[in-house]
Every structure is written in C-alpha cells, then in structure tokens.
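User: Please go through the entry that follows and flag anything odd:
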Amino acid sequence: MSAPHGVLLVDKAPDRTSHDVVARVRWLLGTKKVGHAGTLDPMATGLLILGIGQGTRLLTHLVGLPKTYTATIRLGAATTTDDREGEPIGPARDASGISLAQVEAALAPLRGDILQVPSTVSAIKVDGKRAYARARAGEDVQLAARPVTISRFAVTASRREGGFLDLDAVVTCSSGTYVRALARDLGTALGVGGHLTALRREEVGPFRVGESVHVPARGEGDDVDLPLLGLGAAASRVMPTVPVDEAAARDLGHGKQVRALRPAAPDAAPAAADAAPAAADAAAGPAGESPRAALDPAGHLAAVVREEPGDGLLRPVLVVPPEART
C-alpha cells in the first residue's frame, strides 16, 4: 500500500485534544507524517485541518488563513483560563441589567485591527517555555499584546440565566486571535467579567466544517473512511494556479526553474516544445507577489512556485515527488 498524501478536514469532537486527533489519524492511515494547521482547545469543536504525507509541507500555506468561529460568551464571571475549564476569579457579578445596546457599544472597540493580550494559558512561548506551563507552575505570566484583525464580531442570540447574560456570537478573525481573550475583554469592558463557554470553528479560509469528517476515538472502531483532499485541489483553493505540462512538472519536481508562457496571440507561432505552457491566474497580481500552485495535466500539484519578476521563470519553493502528486 502506497503512503497517503493530501489534506484531511476533521470535525473535532469535544474533550479531545488536537494532538489526540493527530495521533489517531496516524494510526488509522498507517503513516507518521501527519501535522495540523492550527490546534483547537480540548473544549472546542469544529474544523481541524491536517496535512498527510506531502500534505504536511503544504500546511505552511494554510496556517495563516482567517478563521470563523461560533461561540457562546457568559457575562458575569471571569475565569483563570478565560473559558469554562478555568477556576472562577472572585465572586460572580450580576450581569442581568446589561442591555444589548451596552453590549454592542462594548463590541465596537474589539473589531477591526486591535492589539490583543493572549490568554495566560496560551501555548505562546515565554523564554522557551509555554505560557500555560508557567501559569500552571504558579508563575506570574505577563504576555505582550499582539496585533490581530477582527473582521466580524456579532451577537446572534442572547439568554438571561440568573445573574448571567449568555451571548451567542460569530467571530471572523485573523490567525493568532484568541476568542477566549475576546470573551474576557468584553466582560472587562462591561465591568462584570466574561468567559467562553462554547467554541466551534466553522471555517478556515475557504475550507468549511461541513466538508469535514469525524475521526473516531480509540475504542470507537477502526473501520472508517478518511477521504483526503488532493494536494492540487487544496492548493488551488488558497493560491492562484498555473498549469504546466508533464515535462515542466518533472523539471519542477527536480527543483529546476521552468519558463511560464503567456497565452499566445491569435495566429501566433506555437511555443517551443521544451517550454512549460502556463497561463498565470489573474488573481495572482503582479509577478512574484504570491505563491502559485503549478498543476500538471491531471490537476495534481507538481510544485508551489513563485514567478521571477521580469524573466517569466517559475521558481519552485515546494516540490512534490511524482509518486506523491495528488
């Protein structure tokens, strides 16, 4: 059986770590080469993108994609982890009198380009050690604010329960954003504290949770179909494409540069046989600005390339061996 290569879209179940899912997929697919494009907290559910085989090398082009979440925020209590798994910080505060107009006013400064202080129990390294490890060891962890972009932060429903105000929200944000920290900061702005009680990742760039599959935990059975998205299909969703013929695909696979040809003018002479035909996607913008997926005649990924400005050469920055093309 040949080693699998591609991208797997997983709908992570609650109370499982992302690393548990990676380990399980390694077992089910019989390969050690499995990586992820960004973890989810154990309490969170939703879209987890895994790279399989040569797909692990494509992950660098997926990790920075914007993400969309649905979340539930509880106003009236803060916790040590900014979510329901932490210990309460001080007594609960009555949030029953907070109006939705007040909530909306507090949301406004949390939209757009902002500086966000990550949650203390994040995986960010402080002097070589994870922040959560330092926090759990009793250290006073102070994390620097980081720039993030919140393109959408909207309340979709609300419920009052005792002295709490629960808000269902949708958040679209840049990579590196902590939705837990948004819940914390909203509660702080309203003077009652806040934390996250539910989180689901719905989208990562063009990938949707509706396309994903459930990975059974150990003991739930091993007979499961894990359909992989081909490298060509995955790459073409996140970057412009350029078609190449088989000879050019082979050269790219050996790390060679190939020439990108522009579409011929009417009645023009045919291109030389040793040149790779290419029609650069208009979405790529000026030459050299963004990586492109070089696809062979079957639509399989031969390489990720950049076009050298001025000379029309495609320079491979990631090559895929012929046996791994999908």
About this structure: The CA atoms of residues 223 and 272 lie 51 Å apart.
